[in-house]
């Protein structure tokens, strides 16, 4: 069974992030087609995913294309009932679906004022009242979901589910624009920032193309509030490995990594099969289990 998912710039396309998480967070294999926003090639790429006009666009094994993230979530849940996209408990499942539906159609003030940009964080974005109203509503429904489902962990309805995938870009906005939320909402945001699939997506987003000027905002910047990455940098060989930890192909590019507890000059050089594999690893080494296994061997 082969799925082909068309996405756009990882740093900026919030709906692409949702679509990708529906695969990555639930261990469903997928092939990616990546397009660049605001470039002529974007429309050309989507022609291969007729009738889609936006991303994410998913081509099913039968050749049918789904161009709505909610439809993608429901179809994957039907085809992979054991993957955990929806909670198994009927009440929790109904609540998760209600959350996803509201996220899919709402919070336009927040989306407009704070477009997703995983490459920067702002100290303050002067949120207008409409954005503050959206934040209040988010916290209301998040608290409601936790109370109704009895969720005691970091996620809204128990185990991580499609509802959390749909709110991941909102968590990134709250973090990246330093938006005011209460302690429980802040903890939920921090859970997303530390979530392995999200960290991998952001690491790729930092290196998968030039900045898109459309998303720049004239506000003072600060450091990204997520986990601080390990020290790493591109370097010359030799490497401790002969095959890329992701693809298994021969090493052509090398980076140097420093693990916790190592001294300033104590590093290990790991090889990769291309620039992208190297650079996404340098961006956030701990996001990549294959790399960390190699470094800790």
Q: pLDDT average, as an integer?
A: 96
Distance between the termini: 34 Å
Extended strand count: 9
Helix content: 40-55%
List the helices and strands and how they pair.
Elements: E1 4-7, H1 14-24, E2 31-34, H2 40-47, E3 57-59, E4 65-66, H3 69-79, H4 90-105, H5 108-113, E5 121-122, H6 129-149, H7 162-176, H8 183-194, H9 196-205, E6 221-222, E7 232-235, E8 253-257, E9 268-272, H10 275-283, H11 289-296
How is this structure best described in words?
The protein is α+β, with helices and mostly antiparallel strands and 297 residues long. The chain folds into three domains: 76 residues, Glutaredoxin (3-Layer(aba) Sandwich), CATH 3.40.30; 113 residues, Up-down Bundle (Glutathione S-transferase Yfyf (Class Pi), Chain A, domain 2), CATH 1.20.1050.10; 65 residues, no CATH class. Strands 2-1-3-4 form a four-stranded mixed β-sheet. Strands 7-8-9 form a three-stranded antiparallel β-sheet, with helices on one face. Strands 5-6 form a two-stranded antiparallel ribbon. Helix 1 packs parallel to helix 3. It is globular and about 55 Å long. The mean pLDDT is 96.
